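Q: Start with the shorter request: fold the first protein.
A: Done. Sequence, then structure:
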Amino acid sequence: MPANCHATLKRKRSSQLSSPPPKPCRLRPEIAVEIKCHKEERQLPKESKLTDSEEYAAWSGRGRSPFKFPVTAVCDDIKHNARLAEYFFREIARYRSELDEFNAAKGKELEAIKQRAAKMPKRPNNMIANAPDLRPALSSRARSLSPDKYLSKLASCVPPVFKHTSHELGNKLPQQIKDLVLLLTRGLEDSCIPSRYKDAVLHSEFDVPVHAFGDIPCRPKESTELLCKTAKSIREQAQICEAECRDENAWSMNVVRPVMEWESIGQSHAVAEPGFSRTEYIQTQTINTSYLPRIDGVPIESKKADFALSFSPQHPDVKSHYTALQVPGSEPSTLSQLNDVCTRKLALYLAAEVKKFGGNEMEAEAQLFTWLAAGVTKSRKLLKKAKFASSDTLPLLGWTIVGHRWELYMALGKGIEEASEINIFGPFRTCAVDTRTYFSVFKLLRINERIKLWAREQYWPWFCEAVLDPLKGLPKTPEEMDEDEEDDE
């Protein structure tokens, strides 16, 4: 430090020590308050000009004394609270409008439910039974029943579904069932194997009867060659699936599908023309819950089948009837029990459920019986809409296929009332075939030919007269729209 600075400090100290102490004086109140303020607070001069935010910060104790510029800070706080209140009331109004819209939509939905409930059949003097059923269908995630319990539960549903074996009823079978079984099995083994294929069959099978070999005069030569080729391929693929323990999909694609796609007698396979029947792969297609049997108003657990036979919309005769159902500006009535947008427009008359070799036969029956019961219920609704007076109807058919074994069932409703029982007949011993031998494969293909021929010559004319012709130009009823909308959701 310079010498002159030390001299200056010494003079100041000596003057302070020599001067007398200051006299005590009374401080003004405002000065006393300022002295008591926190040491960290800095006093700003009165002439400084601050913004509103700085004034508010100073007033709130973060930078200034609360006794400096209080009016401006309070005004700023009032403005801020006013803006918050405005935003708050605006949000309340928006939430209230959204709540009103939600309540209006729920009110319309509840009104629609009440209207549908009013159409349901009432039981007098029973308030619980007359209440609308708002319970949802069983979830697919719910635990499934075992096949035997499921089959026994079908008998307790509305409509009840009963199984009858052919040996139980004997000659008491309905006439429609007896006529169809005789049509499919009469002379089944006669000339079912072409003569030119006799040596190849006898080389591997010694127990084929002699009358099984022969030629059918009405069958074209190209069809005979294709028949032999198809039978050989089916038998070989069935043996491969069994030996390699293939799954259900392999049996479906390699064995079952060629049988289902085999055309009827007299169809020229040399010319590519659309068949009257078409094979539909429906393994992923669900049944509309409106047609499922119910217990206490709740649909039973839905099942699926693997294949179905429909009347092909590519065939000119079939296409003309399907087109006649269309109504300008409205959707035509659906013809099947399935939810698929394409398959529900087709008339189905046969289904097949496939299981791998060693699969559960009862499970296959449960799936097929559910499909057939839903099909009969859908047919009843169509017949009721078409005002069909007679109670004589034709059956729906179904195959259960477990490995090599094929068994045929027929479903027929007792009358056309929706709550009337549904009877499923089968399996029939005379229609039981398999894919183990050439002889049995040829019989299987002939049965399939006869089923398609019956569908074309008997079932389709009856279906056109009873359902399609009366429904020409008629739009969907409100009940049909509700059924389709419920399941689409």
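Q: Next, the second protein, separately.
A: Sequence, then structure:
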Amino acid sequence: MDSLKVRHAQHSPASFSVNKWITQESATRIILNPQYAEYLALVKAARNGAVYGAKVRFPHALVMVFLFRSGTYVPLSPSLSPPVPRQSPPNTQKRTTHHSARPHSLREKLHLIIKATRQHARNLATFAVLYKTTLFALRHLPSLSLSPSATSSTSNPPNKEGRYDTFLAGLLGGYAVFGRGRGAQSSVNQQIVIYVFARVVLALAKMSVQPGGVLGQTLALSSTTDSGDGTVKARRGTVERNAWPVFASLSWAFVMFIFRWYPEMLQPSLRSSMKYIYVNADHWDGLRNFLWHNK
């Protein structure tokens, strides 16, 4: 009888709450232990990359697939291929085919949305883990660091980040995740890389006019002939003010020219969007597809 009471007490809601609290407290102690910080950072980086990729890609894929695509446009995997219809009487064969066509199209679209979301989340998570792992290795293996101090007679101290470690880590992660493999040039990867490239170009344009930049050094050399009236500073301000207008204007000039004469060179999603806006605007046969509908 006493053993039954002890067993019942062990499985009571109160004991379950205590055990749960002890487990949470132990987990909290582990994740707050500085000894495991670098290893747990890999887990957190993978989590953040996957969550961010899913949040960004899912609404984009949802809109692009349902607005600009229809019908069967890519082969499905075997698990999503339409089932082979069973033999049915002639009077019901047409009816069965009619009812299975539309759900298959919707199912295919959902499959594409989930596939794009999964790929975006997986790629960002994988890149984050590779990037953090490379930084971790470079900090603990200073002979591999690209820091100038690592190549000198005094090696880079352990746990100290070299100046170019992030460049090497990004290079390795970018090649492994976005530069090689069967799906390296998929539309999802191209969108991610082009997005990053555009931001890099903008950042380099801003850096170039700083005092240590290329244009900044050119302007600084001309300061020897400056009369002291702020000419060099005014030139730098002019470049900074006009950098974005020039970048935006040339970007749109090039994309419209390429879309007009070489549309097959553009990314399919961008090509579909531009066709919807600019090409379909030239075609209508009544009020219905002039204002209310596109086609």
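Q: Describe the second briefly.
A: The chain has ten helices and no strands. The radius of gyration is 29 Å.
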